[in-house]
Amino acid sequence: FLFLAGNICEPRIDNGAHQKISINGKPIALSNVPEMSSSFLGGIPLACHGVVLTLKQVDGDRIRDSSSSLELQIERPRLTSPLLRSGTQRLVMEECNYAAHAWSRPAHHPWCLGPRVLRVLGPRPRMHVTNLTDAHTDSKAVEGTVNRVLLKLEAGCDEDCHDVRVRLKCTSATKPHSNDSANDSTHDGLQSAIKPHLTPTFVRKAVDSRAKIVTENGVVLPDGWEIREDVGTDESHDVTTSVSPHLGAGKSLLIPLDIFRPIPSLGENDVSICSTTYEVVIMYRQVRAGESINTFDKSGDQVMVLQSGSINWISPFTAEFSQTNGPKKPHPCGIQHASNIAALSPFPEPSSLVNGTALIAADGERVPMRCSLVAKGLGSNFAASILRVTNEIERNEQQKVLYSSDSRLFMNQTKHGSKLSLSYSVSAQREVTRGNRDETFPLGIISVNWNPVSLSLPGDANLLAGIRTATDEFELTHGPLSLPNLTPIFFYGPQCQVLNAPFKAKLLKCPAMPKVGTPFRISYQVTNQTAKSQSLVVSLNDAQDSDQTGTSDPQLLGTGKMKEEIQMAPFEEKTFSFTFMSMVSGKILRPPLTVSSGRHQTWVINESLMSSRYLFVMP
User: Fold this and answer.
1) Separation between Cα atoms, residue 592 and residue 582, nearest integer Å
2) Among the residues of 445-553, which ranges form H helices?
3) Percentages (nearest 5) of helix, strand, coil residues in the chain
């Protein structure tokens, strides 16, 4: 049996030979241990390379000479069991990370009489790294601007850090977007590669503040920024950046990590979200505190600290679009569409008959829209402020600007979840060059000029006074950096299908607040936009609505032709007028007017779909 150093519990002296056994750090063979001392050898051997059994003849109390002895030797050079136990081994021992002793302690012996095992470890870093940004941003970053992560490096109290250097490793991927937090675990494994031109990139300030740099992947960086050279995706990348030549014991240092991702274009961010995982490797030479070394002296132990983190990318705003008057059109102008067939019912449901999700509009129709900008936040902080909102497809320059921070009508610094609702209208125009083919266009292209809102480090100024900073003109700000001339965010309205309209219809006159007992007139105008004669069926107070409102109701009296069929010549224009008089004051529902085309079997005017047919009659 071979025993490692320290297997013998204590030095003993043989009374006969007065030989002292010393522990010298080398394996001691059992044959070299004196006979009396070997009886005190307890415990379990740490390593076994074989068994040597020697049989000798005994004559009384004396052993004969070794010439008549029989020696049996069994060698197992491949024996791997560290403790020579039979059966399944449950102890996993690392060759260079294991310390044990072979002393079988008697029950009456205290632990203090046992052996001492001294384990000498290699250099260990004492530096403590803290991410000061994650707690304030909830591990989120804003697309379209540079986001800063501040790391606090605090040297240990018994070490001096020399030649502090940094290396980064970064990977990004996309995963399906889910509003249900219960399904997040299901989508964790469904990550896919990110598009090259949307890859998040670690950047730094360029020497030229006006430099315009485009990466190999097609990422357009903000003006005055360039790619860091110490960023890689695997261990083969060994380029480092010097952070500080010396950091004294107990001292702290702030280092910034800047990362940028461009704003995705239309549809690229609706179905997936981007996540970035990074690892910061901080290397330095560790010297015992108080030891004085030369600046050019390379003494000390090279150690490293790993700091990992992750970032989820968000857009500063999202947009919600809706039609001001809803999808039901009171003046469809005779367009030939499944949702406007007069033979089906005077109360069709357009949303259930439209093919796909595109809305419909007549050529030349002015479609009123509403856009609500919803702000996103970084934890409890707001991410950006709105500077200017414009509708890019509006040709009238006076109506193009929907909102400007210079107007001081609203508070431009929004909080998480707040909405800024803006109303506008879009003129549906059909291009003649496309002929009769179906044509769709967005109901508005909303451009938002914005400015990120940076975060400041909280805390007492006296506490931050002892911290050295490796920052630039942004000083102690972190999170999304407020940079000039950022790319605007574009939101596209819902797609609308433009159809040819054989008629043009509009409400000419309707008093806002009529008086009791005073007659008032409501007029409509219909224009035939075709070169063919048309027949129209005009009906006021349709039978399907007479149970709710009608001329028989004493609250509202009406005069004029309730139902008639008229003929219209090519390009002719006709006006329909009706006179009413209210008998009571208050909120009165007026009767609907329906006008249908006999040639196309479609609705020209269908006020049965209107929900705002109420009159507010003054006393």
Assistant:
1) 16
2) 461-465
3) 10, 40, 50
Instruction: Give the integer Cα–Cα distance in Å for 468 and 82.
Output: 51
Chain length of the chain: 619
Question: Hey, is 312 helix, strand or coil?
Answer: strand
140 strand-pairing partners: 312
Tell me the pLDDT tens digit for each residue of 110-153.
766 665 566 667 788 999 999 988 888 888 999 999 999 999 99
d(CA 229, CA 233): 12
Q: Torsion over CA of 557, 561, 564 and 567, rounded to 10 degrees? A: -130
**What is d(CA 170, CA 192) in angstroms, rounded to the nearest whole number?**
15
Structure tokens at 195: 């598009």
Look over the chain and give the mean of its residue pLDDT values, rounded to a whole number. Answer: 75
User: What Cα–Cα distance (Å) separates residue 567 from each residue in 52, 59, 539, 572?
Assistant: 124, 145, 14, 10
Instruction: Name the pTM for this structure.
Output: 0.68
Using CA of residue 229, residue 233, residue 239, residue 240, what is the dihedral sign?
A: positive
Count other C-beta atoms under 10 Å from residue 436's C-beta.
7
With helix as H, strand as E and coil as C, how does 154-210 read?
ECCCCEEEEEEEEEEEEEEEEEECCCCHHHHHHHCCCCECCCHHHCCEEEEECCCCC
Which of the four pLDDT bands, split at 50, 70 and 90, describes residue 497?
confident
Judge contact between 505 and 595, C-beta under 8 A: yes
